[in-house]
Amino acid sequence: MKNLVVILCVALLSGACSKSSTTKTASGGKAAKPEKGWISLFDGKSFDGWKVGKNADSFKIEDGAIAVNGPVGHLFYMGPVKDHNFKNFQFKAKVMTLPGSNSGMYFHTQYQEESWPKKGFEVQVNNSHTDWRRTASLYAIQDVKETYVKDNEWYTEEIMVQGKKVTIKINDKVVNEYTEPEGVERPKDMSERKIGSGTFALQAHDPKSKVYYKDIMVKVLPD
């Protein structure tokens, strides 16, 4: 009887240890639960929901990320979320730039077959390119001269639009805030750089620039 009790105790302890080990392995895995309210726009495997016109070869998928490298082109989100028409939102992506690279993330834009998008705004992605406008610049509207992140390192770049206010964060730190004045007038070549609604786009700037994007997400905010 004494031996039976010992055997049962050992079995119970073994089972508890096995359960503890399994729980630790599961919680320590790579797959994380999506944050509440955030919707993924890129599955890490395909361009489903995205569309590019001229110079489509400037966009490839490498190790679960969108690799942007080649002649000028723009990859537009054209998927089902909000029928790809966003007004108030939070948008974020993990980004990594290679030395000397330039790119950008557009919002409130619309699909365009070629050239630089006329509609909407570009949020700059550039940590060491010759263009002085650095990462987090609201390009040619309210620019940032400081460099907040390094090449060859992943960082998070986030854009939030609420009404007429645009907030841009780098690694959760606010580095640029802009509020569009009522009745604002832009130069003729920037006439469509105004708060409205539209989709998102990623930019291929030039063949010498290479930038990676992954974990591309949006949270829709009330209008």
TrEMBL record:
Span of domain 3-keto-alpha-glucoside-1,2-lyase/3-keto-2-hydroxy-glucal hydratase: 37-219
One Pfam family here: 3keto-disac_hyd
GO molecular function, one term: hydrolase activity
Keyword presence, Transmembrane helix: no
Signal peptide: 1-19
Source organism, top-level taxon: Bacteria
Xref: PROSITE patterns: PROKAR_LIPOPROTEIN
Protein name (record): DUF1080 domain-containing protein
